[in-house]
Amino acid sequence: MTLRPVFLSFIAAAGLAATLAAPAAAATVNEAEYGAFSGSWTSPTVLSGADSVSGSGRQNEDDFLYLTGLQSGAQTLSFTFSGPNGSTTYNGGGDLRYSFDQFRWDYDGIGVGTFNVANGQTALSIALDDSFDGSIYLQFAFNWGDNTQYSFATSKPLVSTAPSTGGSAIVSAAVPLPAGFALLGSVLAGGGLLAAARRRKARTA
After folding, report:
1. Boundaries of every domain in the chain
2. CA distances from 54 to 27, 82, 141, 196 (A)
3. Do residues 133 and 63 touch, judged by C-beta distance below 8 A?
4. Model's pTM, two decimal places?
């Protein structure tokens, strides 16, 4: 039997609607598997559909991430930090920052707190309210230590469509800020960068 073109179009449209209506799949992203995360505030690594992430960093080599595709609404992002192989005596630490808009300079955004593995400061969290739209920028500022491990997850994970295998996240580099905007941010950030450098030097002293 030959199907009319109009009927075929209806089937295609119905299939697309079903795909879009399906719940997103939960996914975990491991930096060791996907490649090094971005160290630039102008072009953070984009993680779309990842509700659990793990990575690592070393002194003065920060990680900048842009999480998108999370569930909207109130939830908590919980972060844990450790040394290699889960060591809790490892001497490494730094600061965690976040923003709902792209960072305008290094050390921009809101400070969550300091992590210091050797001193037992290994857990931080960000409490998001009902207005959260599912996207957030993160900076892991590693101020000392050569191999600080971190992981984090949301308290409101995405719904997995395949519980046995989980889903897949999309990992990509963000489109860099326009040159003029980045330059403006650099000028405005002059004082902020100097202050950040002093804070880092004070922590390592």
Report:
1. 24-204
2. 12, 11, 15, 25
3. no
4. 0.71
